[in-house]
UniProtKB/TrEMBL annotation:
Classification of source organism: Bacteria, Bacillati, Bacillota, Bacilli, Bacillales
Active site (catalytic residues): 194 (proton acceptor)
InterPro entries named in the record: 6-PGluconate_DH-like_C_sf, 6PGD_dom2, G3P_DH_NAD-dep, G3P_DH_NAD-dep_C, G3P_DH_NAD-dep_N, NAD(P)-bd_dom_sf
Official protein name in the record: Glycerol-3-phosphate dehydrogenase [NAD(P)+]
Gene name as annotated: gpsA
HAMAP family: NAD_Glyc3P_dehydrog (MF_00394)
Alphabetical UniProt keywords: Cytoplasm, Lipid biosynthesis, Lipid metabolism, NAD, NADP, Nucleotide-binding, Oxidoreductase, Phospholipid biosynthesis, Phospholipid metabolism
């Protein structure tokens, strides 16, 4: 019997590791990468040392610089690129997709110009027949740990349950447990907004604040994620799940998180530009802070942590002053806020 086939668009840490998950599940996988050196290294040495060092890739994972070659005739195509590049890549991919391809995206963010979710961008760019084949993959899943086959749980969601179940059956294995959730809006919003709070958690840790501060950020962060999410049409219970509190906890507490690390570097006095240059990988929370700041105004939702982080990132507000302003803002009744938000 011939092997199932998949293409992964994006040769960063997450795209490369998702390719290994699919290879472990019996897929023939081809990664589309932009750099010739990355393609050569994957094909000849079975490594992608720039993004995920120390990981040996299975032989059934290959790479190409041709998007057409990557996508042609593949049953499944994964988009795993920074959210600001999603539209451009979807447009380039569109003419080459199989008419019945399963489309999965694993990116966490909003398109800044339009404030759209990634599935909305894909819907606009891909052929109409593929609209109901669009799926989001989200949840607490640092690539470095999945690469070690450390037990991981994620969630997939699509407008059509059958599509989500197909993605689930392709991706699930003994170290990668995949749940479905019918709330695509909530899954995309939870996965995107948690990066803002993770930046704040890195800042908080770097400033020497303790576990109380971290717990406050996670809890109050979840409240404002849920408030905006619900205003945008998400179901509140999704934020109690893997794409909500699950991803929020892992990103706020893990040294693997690029968002946490970026916040930590900022706390040590580096400028945002210096941090992004040093990181060399996408820090989605930066653009997501801008997007959420605008969305909060559009939907008239209160997001105090996002507002303060926006001021720290883009107006160079002193983070200690930001924390003081958060602590001293108007008195609030937690129960009333929770009832309003949830
Ligand atoms: N790294 C992780 O553990 C996880 C990442 N994600 C999400 O996955 C997405 C990708 O993240 P990573 O793989 O970590 O990023 P990364 O920074 O490691 O790699 C991004 C890759 O996309 C490529 N790329 C950027 N712009 C492109 C364009 N216009 N055309 C083609 N390729 C382009 C880069 O060359 C690079 O290979 C992000 O939205 C991230 O939030 C989600 C879950 C886990
Ligand atoms: O989304 C992630 C883990 O679930 C990855 O987070 P970072 O982008 O902060 O590394």
């Amino acid at each position: 019997m011939s092997k199932k086939t998949a293409a992964v668009l994006g040769a960063g840490s997450w795209g490369t590791v998702l390719a290994t998950v699919l290879a472990d599940n019996g897929f023939e996988v081809i990664i589309w990468a932009r750099r010739e050196s990355t393609v050569r290294e994957i094909n000849e040495q079975h490594r992608n040392s720039r993004y995920i060092p120390d990981v040996r890739l299975p032989r059934s994972v290959r790479a190409t610089m041709s998007i057409q070659e990557a996508i042609r005739d593949r049953e499944m195509v994964l988009f795993v690129i920074p959210s600001q590049s999603m539209r451009e890549v979807a447009r380039a991919a569109a003419p080459h997709l199989r008419k019945d391809a399963l489309i999965v995206h694993a990116s966490k963010g909003f398109e800044l110009d339009s404030l759209k979710r990634m599935s909305e961008v894909l819907k606009e760019e891909l052929p109409t027949a593929l609209r109901e084949k669009i799926t989001v993959l989200s949840g607490p899943s640092h690539a470095e740990e999945v690469a070690k086959k450390s037990p991981t749980t994620v969630v997939v969601s699509s407008e059509r349950q059958q599509t989500a179940e197909m993605a689930q059956s392709y991706l699930i294995n003994p170290y990668f447990r995949v749940y479905t959730n019918p709330d695509m809006v909530g899954v995309e919003i939870g996965g995107s907004l948690k990066n803002i709070i993770a930046l704040g958690a890195g800042l908080s840790d770097g400033l020497g604040f303790g576990d109380n501060a971290k717990a406050a950020l996670v809890t109050r962060g979840l409240a404002e994620i849920a408030r905006l999410g619900m205003a945008m049409g998400a179901r509140p219970i999704t934020f109690a799940g893997l794409a909500g509190v699950g991803d929020l906890v892992v990103t706020c507490t893990s040294r693997h998180s690029r968002n946490w690390r970026a916040g930590h570097m900022l706390s040590q006095g580096m400028t945002l530009d210096e941090v992004l240059e040093r990181m060399g990988m996408v820090v989605e929370g930066v653009k997501t802070t801008r997007a959420a700041y605008r969305l909060a105004r559009q939907y008239q939702v209160e997001m105090p942590i996002t507002n303060e982080l926006h001021a720290v990132l883009f107006d160079r507000k002193d983070p200690r002053q930001a924390v003081e302003d958060l602590m001293c803002r108007g008195k609030t009744n937690e129960m009333e806020e929770i009832v309003q938000g949830w």
